[in-house]
Amino acid sequence: MKKILPIILILLVTGCANVAISLGTIGVVTDHSGNAIQAKVEMTHKELTNKSKSTTTEADGKYTMSGLRTWTPIPFSAIRMWAIVKVTAPGYEPYEYEIEGLKSVPETVKLEKK
Question: Closest Cα to residue 84, out of 96, 95, 71, 68?
Fold first, then answer.
């Protein structure tokens, strides 16, 4: 055990020990009358290039997305866990919002007609 502890400390201090952290979002997409809209939802990490994921809403306008994984050194990291979520649907103005951290807060998206 005495030999393993220094190795673990070195890995932690140098940032060689990594963990996967995953961003996610949930919500519903409607028009201003409350009618469900079929839409595309895309989540893109704000700092890391080529880190995005997309899905489409279900028939009732609901969506759930997780798994935008980021490997980050522990216990400290300069990489923030934040992303832009963009919602688009034909005939409607795009809608964007930011998420930060690991807790998903339901977002109600009301799209405006073009």
Answer: 96
pLDDT for 26 equals 92
Averaged pLDDT score across all residues of the chain: 80
Per-residue pLDDT band for 58 (boundaries 50, 70, 90) equals: very high
At the second CATH level, the architecture of 4-110 is Sandwich (2.60)
State the amino acid at position 88 in one-letter form.
T
Nearest Cα neighbor of 92 from 20, 17, 27, 39 is 39
Using DSSP bridges, classify how beta strands 95-100 and 82-88 pair: parallel, antiparallel or unpaired: antiparallel
Per DSSP, helices labelled H in the chain are 4-14
Which tokens belong to 6? 């220094």
Handedness of CA 46, 51, 56, 62 (dihedral sign): negative
Pairing of strands 40-45, 62-73: unpaired
Other beta carbons within 10 angstroms of residue 114's beta carbon come to 8
Sheet holding 52-56, edge to edge: 52-56, 40-45, 82-88, 95-100
